[in-house]
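For the sake of transparency, this paper describes our internal protein records without simplification. The remainder of this section carries one protein's record, kept here as part of the documentation:
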Amino acid sequence: MPVLAAALLCGASAVAFADNRDDFLAGKTNDCPKCNLDGIDIKYRDLTGANLAGAVLDGANMHRVNLANANLAGATITQANLNKTVLRNANMTGVDLTDSLIYGADASGVNLTGANLTRAYAGAIRLINAKLVGANLTRTDFGDGTLNDADLSRATVDDMSFQRAHMNRANLKGIVGERAFFNNADLDSVNLSGAKLPFSVFQNANLRGADLSGADLTMTYLIGANLFDADTRDAVFAGARMPDNTIQPGQ
């Protein structure tokens, strides 16, 4: 492509994105891919099915916004307010949600594969059938959340809270992290095979029928946990405090 033609094309693209941003802010369109919407206030807006792929929404106020079926793939949404948002079946693959508030959001069926939720506060979130494969959940708070049938396989969960969460049949295969907290969580029939969770806490957790095969649970705290019918083949409990308050021998 000639240099002049390429320059004209780039200029046209920039103008198109600018026009798109103006129309988005005016409520004329719900689509604004790759737009810079830093610090925008769009609380309560209905953005069902919107295309915001690659958009920058750092510091945005998106309280109670309806983003059901929206495309937010690759968007940057750090330090933003998404409390009580509707994210059902949204595409949020690769999204950066570092330090954002997502309390009470309905994100059932959302695709957060490869997303970064470091230090996100997402208490009481609904993530039924959600995909968080390979997500970074370092210091994320999913306390009191509902994650039944969710797929968190290979996620990073250092210092994360799943306290009192409902996670029946969730796929946590191969998750990795130290000091993850599952206190009083309902993990009935969960898949934790191959997980590496040393120094984590499962006090009073329901692990009935869970698959713990090959899991590394070194130095974990399991007092009061229900392990009835759990598959513990090849699991490592070195130094762990077991449900009956006994301590397993170290390695």
Q: What stands out?
A: The helical segments are 3-25. Residues 6-16 have pLDDT under 50 and may be disordered. The first helix runs from residue 3 to 25.
